[in-house]
């Protein structure tokens, strides 16, 4: 407990701090697919005991990975790194069937923690291939979700496009039977532009029955767009290698003059924040809420924070837990 003089000094220090409104975007942070994947690792540890091997990052967040490592998970890049007969999990981003077949050959007890919405895209491209259609994937080359989706094609060649400009270079006839699918964490606005260009280019184009971009990506981009319209600066909590985190930053930058993507509160560039005004905060679908709270605490050290939440929409989606036996 502070003595009266120290308490007065602390009160004076607080009053000297500039005041800012901090608007938390909602929804933000973990989506249903991320929760399901993290739960799958913990359930496997509870059922089988440590170690449990996870091929690639279960989700794109180092804090989550480090936490699961502390509980007994071992993250590997390829299956050969796990001893034969090990318990192995595949990440939420999805894998090619060849990876699952390799796990069986090695005698692994394998669980696939793929997000159900990514699995939906896999079923779509397989159906298009059976129907003899050329495939176009809208997404980022080299992203694990795109790599996994490409692995679900046996004979058809798929072309990955990431901009309207790339459509003109596609080696396909305008009347060729074509279909497209979209990376679930892609920018809603960018995808719409590319889809419009595909509709113009191809006369026989089959589209997804419903949007491939997942509800969480869509909702978080919509929420940060609303916050960014009111903010002098935006902080996006997420990893630099997270697709959905980068898309949040891009969407915010369309209307907000200062946007930074930070993995943790220690990464905040204070020179990019206003002395007074409004600071918006959001978090990628793979970012734990603890990271957001750390950012709020860091802001509270330098500012007198007036905290509020802007709820753009309410999320009720829950995925069935992965069966671990």
UniProtKB/TrEMBL annotation:
<keyword id="KW-0408">Iron</keyword>
<keyword id="KW-0411">Iron-sulfur</keyword>
<keyword id="KW-0479">Metal-binding</keyword>
<feature type="binding site">
    <location>
        <position position="244"/>
    </location>
    <ligand>
        <name>(2E)-4-hydroxy-3-methylbut-2-enyl diphosphate</name>
    </ligand>
</feature>
<feature type="binding site">
    <location>
        <position position="143"/>
    </location>
    <ligand>
        <name>(2E)-4-hydroxy-3-methylbut-2-enyl diphosphate</name>
    </ligand>
</feature>
<feature type="binding site">
    <location>
        <position position="244"/>
    </location>
    <ligand>
        <name>isopentenyl diphosphate</name>
    </ligand>
</feature>
<feature type="binding site">
    <location>
        <position position="93"/>
    </location>
    <ligand>
        <name>isopentenyl diphosphate</name>
    </ligand>
</feature>
<feature type="binding site">
    <location>
        <position position="115"/>
    </location>
    <ligand>
        <name>[4Fe-4S] cluster</name>
    </ligand>
</feature>
<comment type="pathway">
    <text>Isoprenoid biosynthesis; isopentenyl diphosphate biosynthesis via DXP pathway; isopentenyl diphosphate from 1-deoxy-D-xylulose 5-phosphate: step 6/6.</text>
</comment>
<feature type="binding site">
    <location>
        <position position="242"/>
    </location>
    <ligand>
        <name>dimethylallyl diphosphate</name>
    </ligand>
</feature>
<feature type="binding site">
    <location>
        <position position="244"/>
    </location>
    <ligand>
        <name>dimethylallyl diphosphate</name>
    </ligand>
</feature>
<protein>
    <recommendedName>
        <fullName>4-hydroxy-3-methylbut-2-enyl diphosphate reductase</fullName>
        <ecNumber>1.17.7.4</ecNumber>
    </recommendedName>
</protein>
<feature type="binding site">
    <location>
        <position position="60"/>
    </location>
    <ligand>
        <name>isopentenyl diphosphate</name>
    </ligand>
</feature>
<feature type="binding site">
    <location>
        <position position="286"/>
    </location>
    <ligand>
        <name>(2E)-4-hydroxy-3-methylbut-2-enyl diphosphate</name>
    </ligand>
</feature>
<feature type="binding site">
    <location>
        <position position="184"/>
    </location>
    <ligand>
        <name>(2E)-4-hydroxy-3-methylbut-2-enyl diphosphate</name>
    </ligand>
</feature>
<dbReference type="Pfam" id="PF02401">
    <property type="entry name" value="LYTB"/>
</dbReference>
<feature type="binding site">
    <location>
        <position position="60"/>
    </location>
    <ligand>
        <name>dimethylallyl diphosphate</name>
    </ligand>
</feature>
<keyword id="KW-0414">Isoprene biosynthesis</keyword>
<feature type="binding site">
    <location>
        <position position="31"/>
    </location>
    <ligand>
        <name>[4Fe-4S] cluster</name>
    </ligand>
</feature>
<comment type="pathway">
    <text>Isoprenoid biosynthesis; dimethylallyl diphosphate biosynthesis; dimethylallyl diphosphate from (2E)-4-hydroxy-3-methylbutenyl diphosphate: step 1/1.</text>
</comment>
<feature type="binding site">
    <location>
        <position position="242"/>
    </location>
    <ligand>
        <name>(2E)-4-hydroxy-3-methylbut-2-enyl diphosphate</name>
    </ligand>
</feature>
<feature type="binding site">
    <location>
        <position position="243"/>
    </location>
    <ligand>
        <name>isopentenyl diphosphate</name>
    </ligand>
</feature>
<feature type="binding site">
    <location>
        <position position="60"/>
    </location>
    <ligand>
        <name>(2E)-4-hydroxy-3-methylbut-2-enyl diphosphate</name>
    </ligand>
</feature>
<feature type="binding site">
    <location>
        <position position="214"/>
    </location>
    <ligand>
        <name>[4Fe-4S] cluster</name>
    </ligand>
</feature>
<feature type="binding site">
    <location>
        <position position="143"/>
    </location>
    <ligand>
        <name>isopentenyl diphosphate</name>
    </ligand>
</feature>
<feature type="binding site">
    <location>
        <position position="242"/>
    </location>
    <ligand>
        <name>isopentenyl diphosphate</name>
    </ligand>
</feature>
<dbReference type="InterPro" id="IPR003451">
    <property type="entry name" value="LytB/IspH"/>
</dbReference>
<feature type="binding site">
    <location>
        <position position="93"/>
    </location>
    <ligand>
        <name>dimethylallyl diphosphate</name>
    </ligand>
</feature>
<feature type="active site" description="Proton donor">
    <location>
        <position position="145"/>
    </location>
</feature>
<comment type="similarity">
    <text>Belongs to the IspH family.</text>
</comment>
<feature type="binding site">
    <location>
        <position position="286"/>
    </location>
    <ligand>
        <name>dimethylallyl diphosphate</name>
    </ligand>
</feature>
<feature type="binding site">
    <location>
        <position position="243"/>
    </location>
    <ligand>
        <name>(2E)-4-hydroxy-3-methylbut-2-enyl diphosphate</name>
    </ligand>
</feature>
<feature type="binding site">
    <location>
        <position position="143"/>
    </location>
    <ligand>
        <name>dimethylallyl diphosphate</name>
    </ligand>
</feature>
<feature type="binding site">
    <location>
        <position position="93"/>
    </location>
    <ligand>
        <name>(2E)-4-hydroxy-3-methylbut-2-enyl diphosphate</name>
    </ligand>
</feature>
<comment type="function">
    <text>Catalyzes the conversion of 1-hydroxy-2-methyl-2-(E)-butenyl 4-diphosphate (HMBPP) into a mixture of isopentenyl diphosphate (IPP) and dimethylallyl diphosphate (DMAPP). Acts in the terminal step of the DOXP/MEP pathway for isoprenoid precursor biosynthesis.</text>
</comment>
<keyword id="KW-0004">4Fe-4S</keyword>
<feature type="binding site">
    <location>
        <position position="243"/>
    </location>
    <ligand>
        <name>dimethylallyl diphosphate</name>
    </ligand>
</feature>
<keyword id="KW-0560">Oxidoreductase</keyword>
<feature type="binding site">
    <location>
        <position position="286"/>
    </location>
    <ligand>
        <name>isopentenyl diphosphate</name>
    </ligand>
</feature>
